[in-house]
């Protein structure tokens, strides 16, 4: 297996690990991820290679260090994986990552028997992914204006507001608008049907940006619903502007970083937490296109300097070839890559399985009753 080469240590031309070196490296990295204790020849021999002599194992560890996969913290101390070592580990385990059942049930709760509300659910997703993995989580909602409208429903509430529900090819956009107390409920039903007929298969951006053209095209048909229409468009503009101003980025669980031994140094932790509270820097993590179901950036692969002693896991939720949301996990390079990949894979799968909201328009009267 050819390995991508990174800085640090000697670089060997056409570098390929022997099967023995591979097994030693994978076992050592896995052990370090679980225990955060420096890798020693005695430890590795007892757990993975008891058929090897101590001298042979020491030579193999020295070779892995020279090749840049491991490094010594101090002279005569144990070794720890380098970013290159973690990258080899990730490449080796990502062929078929099993779902970790111990973290699936909690993630499933926020998806079970409900539709997806793209605006307010972002915070919930970030919260639950952070809690399940015990690392900070970042969710970036994007492609909002490219969503294709399937159905529109406007429901007057007792609070003096009306709930706007726009079913799209990726879930439900929900927002509120002022309601006219003197307007019959049936008018909202009729307006919803009219707007569905007019805008079905159009994008949200098209509806907002070409509003004046639609006014002309709809002419007298719009007169009965003009106040509802104008109020709905204004509320969608506000929601769109709000998402655009924040970059659609939400971070949760920042303080969970302190649970990792690597961030017991508060100054070191603060540098990462500062990034987690800065949407413009977080956007850089997601700015490149990504065709992989689950991907990792480790060390210098991360475009944000303050995160280059970290690892970032990422999954994209894609609809009709368009990335609608990116979910990221930020933690130490010693993060449990298999567990993180399992969590992200499950979340993206649950996105795809969400039940659509019943937006069938019905009047209040039912003659069959």
Query: Percent of residues in helical segments?
Result: 40-55%
- In terms of per-residue confidence, which ranges show pLDDT below 50 for 5 or more consecutive residues? 1-14, 355-369
- Number of domains as seen in the coordinates: 3
Q: Quickly count the helices.
A: 13
Structural class: alpha+beta
What is the highest CATH level, the class of the largest domain? Alpha Beta
CATH architecture identity of the largest domain? 2-Layer Sandwich
Describe the structure.
With 369 residues, the protein is an alpha+beta fold. It has three domains: 19-93, Winged helix-like DNA-binding domain superfamily/Winged helix DNA-binding domain (Arc Repressor Mutant, subunit A), CATH 1.10.10; 101-142 and 248-353, Beta-Lactamase (2-Layer Sandwich), CATH 3.30.450.40; 145-246, Enolase-like, domain 1. Helix content is 42%, strand content 18%. It has 13 helices and ten strands. It has helices at 19-35, 41-47, 54-66, 83-93, 101-109, 121-133, 185-199, 204-209, 211-218, 226-246, 266-276, 279-286, 337-353; strands at residues 70-72, 79-81, 137-141, 149-156, 161-168, 171-178, 249-252, 294-298, 310-319, 322-332. The protein has a five-stranded antiparallel β-sheet with strand order 7-3-10-9-8, sandwiched between helices. Strands 4-5-6 form a three-stranded antiparallel β-sheet. A two-stranded antiparallel sheet has the order 1-2. Strand 4 (149-156) and strand 5 form a beta hairpin. The longest helix has 21 residues, at 226-246. The radius of gyration is 26 Å and the shape is elongated. Mean pLDDT is 79; it is low at 1-14 and 355-369.
């Amino acid at each position: 297996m050819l390995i991508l080469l990174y800085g640090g240590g000697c670089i060997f031309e056409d570098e390929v690990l022997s099967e023995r070196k591979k097994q030693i490296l994978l076992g050592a990295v896995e052990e370090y991820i679980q225990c955060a204790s420096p890798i020693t020849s005695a430890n590795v021999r007892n757990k993975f290679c008891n058929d090897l002599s101590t001298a042979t194992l020491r030579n193999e560890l020295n070779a892995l260090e020279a090749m840049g996969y491991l490094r010594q913290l101090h002279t005569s101390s144990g070794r720890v994986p380098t970013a290159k070592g973690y990258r080899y580990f990730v490449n080796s385990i990502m062929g078929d990552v099993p779902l970790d059942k111990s973290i699936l049930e909690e993630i499933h709760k926020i998806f079970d028997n409900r539709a997806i509300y793209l605006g307010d659910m972002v915070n919930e997703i970030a919260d639950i992914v952070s809690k399940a993995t015990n690392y900070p989580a970042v969710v970036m909602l994007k492609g909002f204006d490219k969503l294709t409208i399937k159905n529109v429903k406007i429901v007057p509430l007792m609070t003096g507001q009306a709930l706007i529900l726009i079913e799209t090819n990726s879930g439900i956009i929900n927002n509120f608008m002022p309601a006219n107390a003197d307007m019959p409920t049936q008018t909202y039903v009729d307006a919803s049907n009219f707007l569905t007929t007019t805008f079905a298969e159009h994008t949200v951006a098209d509806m907002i940006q070409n509003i004046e053209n639609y006014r002309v095209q709809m002419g007298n048909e719009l007169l009965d619903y003009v106040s509802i229409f104008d109020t709905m468009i204004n509320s969608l503009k506000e929601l769109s502007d709000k998402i655009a101003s924040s970059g659609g980025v939400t971070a949760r669980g920042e303080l969970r970083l302190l649970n990792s031994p690597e961030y017991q140094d508060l100054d070191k932790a603060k540098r990462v937490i500062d990034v987690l509270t800065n949407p413009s820097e977080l956007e850089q993590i997601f700015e490149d296109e990504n065709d992989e179901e689950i991907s990792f950036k480790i060390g210098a692969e991360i475009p944000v300097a303050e995160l280059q002693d970290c690892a970032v896991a990422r999954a994209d939720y894609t609809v009709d070839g368009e990335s609608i949301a990116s979910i990221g996990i930020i933690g130490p390079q010693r993060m449990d890559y298999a567990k993180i990949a399992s969590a992200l894979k499950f979340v993206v799968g649950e996105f795809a399985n969400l039940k659509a909201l019943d937006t069938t328009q019905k009047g209040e009267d039912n003659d069959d009753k």
